[in-house]
Amino acid sequence: MYFLGQTLNVFTLGGLALAVGRLVDDSIVELENINRHLAMPGTERRRAVLDAAREVAMPIFSATITTIIVFVPTVFLEGQIKLLFIPLTFTISISLFASFLVSRTVTPLLALKVLQPEKPIDPASRSLRDRVFRFSRRFFERIEEVYQQVIVWALGHRRIVVGGIAATFVASLFLVLAPHFGFKPLIGTEFFPPSDEAQFRINVKAPIGTRIEETERIVRGMESIIRATVHPEELKTIVANVGIPQGRSAVFTSNTGPHSATVQVYLTTADKRARNDREIVNAIRPKFTGQFPGTRYQFVSGGLVSRVINFGSETAIAVEILGYDLATAEALSREVARIMQATEGVADVTVGRDASYPQFEVKVDREKAASVGLTQRDIAQAALFSLNSNASVNPSIFTDPRTGNQYNLVVQLDETYRQTPDDLHRLFVTANDRPVLLSTIAAITQSTGPVEIERKYQQRLVRVAANAVGRDLGSVSEELEGKFRQLPLPAGFSIRLGGQTEQQREAFGSLAFTSLLAVILVYMVLASQFKSLKDPFTIMFSVPMGLIGVFWALYLTDTTLSSTSFMGIIMMVGIVVSNGVLLVEYINELRRHGMPVAEAVPRAGRVRLRPILMTVFATVVGLLPMAFAFGVGTEANQPLAIAVIGGLLVSTFFTLVLIPTLYVIFEERFPRAIGDDARHP
Description:
By secondary structure, the protein is an alpha+beta fold. The chain has 22 helices and 15 strands. Strands 5, 6, 13, 14 and 15 form a 5-stranded antiparallel sheet that branches. Strands 2-3-1-4 form a 4-stranded antiparallel sheet, covered by helices on one side. Helix 18 (542-556) runs antiparallel to helix 21 (638-669). Mean pLDDT is 85; it is low at 676-681.
């Protein structure tokens, strides 16, 4: 991390937490094999350690490289997702490489000095230690014996095994593809899992023209509801910001006038609350219904982290209406908002543009203005200074000669001369040191218009924002897009979904390409290690078995398929093949010593069962704290851990049966001779 310029943050620490279980896998395999060789009668201690280390050198190296190589394609990720996951991949890859070095150097030396051969246990001993050892030995021997019988049965019923597992895989795909068949989504999709930042905000907009005193009364009513709904131990403080402040600080507020306000609610940390921030917001939202007629409000969960991840978008759903004409855009935005409000799972629908804000239009007669030596800039600046002062544009600075302190000298008409529309007509503009009445050189009319005009792609833009409540973002976005396609659009206008929807699709496209590239790289690495194309092809069937576990784990835990869980699938690809590597490599090892295929496969399965189970459970246990999201701020990596655990457990179960079966099928279809010369041609 020091040489790569990385810091300790949620993702680097999350990478270390993810790698904890996998770090010990190489040493587990090494120690288990050394212990097995030491138990062989007549084997010299040093020779047993060397033979055991040599025997697992290739599978350990292959397992480590395949786990690391899946992260190489992350350099091809695009957008925000790349910035989020690059630190995680760095920490996992470097820690795994260090673990491999330790397993190949430190572990055998310590085993040579410390590890003692297993001593026979007296069958008549009644000590607790001996009884536990006898029970554990009988238990594991029974499991190994049953597993060997399962392999023998599977080899005799290959069609049932392969067909049953294939059917299970196809059925599991339905969990993800259900919407394509017209069913309700069983596994939702979203860009990034929400995190509890212990705060939320309410953007309030009263009817256009509401005085600031009335807006403040509405905000006080909202505060009273919040305090009555949020438990005292959950609430920290409430900060309200009503209207637009004077001076340059107005640039930093999201309020657009005296009719708008923001209510910022700060909560206690997640470990001190029984409810998360979204549950609290969902409890407050229905209590606002009908309490503030004509007032629009929008709940915004999260804080700075959420806005950074969403590229500044405050809500999950952001519909962008692009077009020039203001009146047409206003009508179209109201129709879009109506469609969104009628969609299940969409809440807090708000139109970003305040279109009917009262205003005065000063249309300058350029000929008259030019005749007295005035420009439009002069007239606009004089009107601004008279009504709103020169504090925010060009304040005069006075320096006290005694103290050196500087003060802004602000020029502005007294309040009694800027209260009515007629006061605007009576403004004077100075031209060549002569006062000119504004109404003599300009026509002043009252109208309405937008407070601000936002642009994107060099086009005028209106945003209609909303939150997804009770439904996943992916299904809501697809339903909205279907409705928008049926909406007749005026000429020159277009509608598109931005915000998290845009980020999700970009991230999923990059991650899908990364996953495919990771599978190809793993196959290439295994082919180079086995010096064969058939063995890696057999091992790669572990990957679809892992997908079965991933999909069912997400479904059973009600976890969405997000960028984080997608990253867990990529990580799972590198881990699940390691079990197949251990199994296939030892089958080939036995065949090199002259054992027939029919005997080598069950024998290898029985010998390799224990290290496979040990490494799997070590990895799973290491991921459990992250899967249960213990601690504040761990929600971001929770889907990743759930995906890896589900994929690893189910893949192990199916791989232990499928890989030996496929190995025999491919050997019978494409026979080959494996001897001592086959490894080093």
